[in-house]
């Protein structure tokens, strides 16, 4: 009896394993294909594509805490900006101009900012949590503004000149190297995050989002787990910030702004929370659309984004990716 | 008494007094605008980031009424409050009603969306420039209080804050509507089952909240100037006031406004190079110690 049960229990699992592996590899292939198409379709606009990828890392990192852990935050740019400033300061003031090292410094900077802001934000719930996250990003912003000796204050931190990657690929004027570097970073981040979200730790985080009291009753530490996730999220956001610093060679105070935090959250929800694909889709569609419309009139852009947000909340609460999945499921169900 | 310390003491007294008056005026303007937000958030549990947008709409209407139509200040205030409420009713009916009881993230997104729309439309209709609401003659000059003179519009803002606090206190503590409102805040389902028509209570308090926001936007236009990004610039400030004071508590909101107004104004006078650093540091400290706000109800 027991033997039958174990075999029957083991069978679907064995079948499921290659299934998700196949799906992830397919997803990875799609990401690379889209990146390649972007390269060939917009060879004169690689700077924008690189910026999209930097922000995509920020949106992925918000997804980790909001989509997977259920922490509502309007202050995640603090982590992104901390990474950007950490790598920028390392390059300008300490002569660390190797791009890989700069990314590592940025990730560490973001992770440290993650510990600090996580320790503050996780003390509250609901409204208090939102307000704490807003206060944290403003605090970071004002601190960076005041410490102008290191950060350049409101003029921004300029003079970042990264070395060639591996000493071979120099950063060219067209941004080809920067774009390739960005794609590589996003792909690596995606693989690592895929592994983390599928791990028991990732499952624990999802459990906390569903029912924190039950997780505590199971004997797991809710605050400790969330703080760990915040540190991971900070490292991802910091990588995005470092990428931005390397590709644009300047770090501005806007990378620590409330506006960037809010926009990144909007991108995440537009794409769909709780899914890495949703974060990527949301970022690409939002920023491409923004570039397209705001070139015409920045204020029309605000009106359209506002209307779009209201429409998403009313008609597609699971975001573009989630709604597409639902539609695909329904279509498949009808087909049967 | 030593000779030197006399004028020095006098001077520092003057500084303390002018900081105090500015802080009081700023705090009262914050109170008039955000008290409506506090009541609606305590009542409907909606994180409403679009509240500042209604204050901005009020300011724009008042500016239009005085500058283009040539109305007086008092008429403009009335027109702006009524106009803003008329604009807000369909917004409440078709958008807000969908997000009562939804998760915070949904509410944040919906209300940010409304704010963006209002900013875009305001800019389209009125242009990107700063709008002024000319004060009447009586509020323009300084008022001599005997020991020193104070700008009349600041005194007017303080008086408005006191009047709003008093009127709200009367409305909530002494009228039958107030009883229904308090019952709905405490337990909406129980109030509804006892025959309180909570939908009407919600709609009326939303209208009052929006009207107060518009009123505050006009009265405070000298301190918080009216321009398209107003709604975004002060969105956080109003939300912070509610969170620090405790959603749904009038004394809490008053206390929070006076405290935060004092911290912000003192910081601007004494340490202007730090910007709002100490303001947000204080917010973090208060919210960490009092997660439900200074006078929020423990539930």
TrEMBL record, chain A:
The chain crosses the membrane at residues 25-42, 48-71, 78-96, 102-122, 127-144, 178-196, 265-289, 301-321. InterPro entries: ABC_transp_permease (IPR001851), LivM-like (IPR043428). It is a multi-pass membrane protein. It is found in: Cell membrane. Keywords: Cell membrane, Membrane, Transmembrane, Transmembrane helix. Pfam families: BPD_transp_2. PANTHER family: ABC TRANSPORTER ATP-BINDING PROTEIN (PTHR30482:SF17), HIGH-AFFINITY BRANCHED-CHAIN AMINO ACID TRANSPORT SYSTEM PERMEASE (PTHR30482). This is Branched-chain amino acid transport system permease protein. The lineage of its organism: Bacteria, Pseudomonadati, Pseudomonadota, Alphaproteobacteria, Hyphomicrobiales.
